[in-house]
Amino acid sequence: MGEEEGGNRIKGKRDPWKSLERFLVNVTDRINAVIAPDPSADPVAANKLRIASNTLEKLHWDTAERKIRWHLHWLGVDPAQQRKGIGRHLVQWGLDRAIEDKVWAGIESSAVGEKLYSSMGFKVIGERLPCIEGINMGTVMAWEPKRS
Prior knowledge:
The structure is a single chain. The longest helix has 20 residues, at 16-35. Strand 4 (131-132) and strand 5 form a beta hairpin. This protein has five helices and six strands. The chain is globular. Helix content is 48%, strand content 15%. The mean pLDDT is 83. It has helices at residues 3-12, 16-35, 43-61, 86-101, 114-119, and strands at residues 69-71, 104-109, 123-126, 131-132, 135-136, 139-143. The strands form two sheets. The protein has a four-stranded mixed β-sheet. GO terms for molecular function: acyltransferase activity, transferring groups other than amino-acyl groups. This is N-acetyltransferase domain-containing protein.
């Protein structure tokens, strides 16, 4: 399977019912935020996070070869459970999907996670990022599939 076919396979996996569900959940969340806002939520901070995420996407992921990828979001291990191989196992799961689909994998790493990701073949593609909208976005790292 060519690289483009792998990316197209990921696109093809999108279930229209799942897409509709995501859309409806998003609409419901927005309506609830207006009608019955969560008193523990900070709408200003949530908006800053959205802006920061969109900026990061445009800076590092919005290219032909990186747009379609397996992105490892919110990967973490309880400090009491670290150093047991759990993080490596979680990352490998994502890499296995990227290998299968012949696409890139990406992550924004904390300083603590950089060593693990580097040892698994991720390369820094964005230096430790400055704060965007007051949010520290970490180091942008990518894993590139082997060319066949």
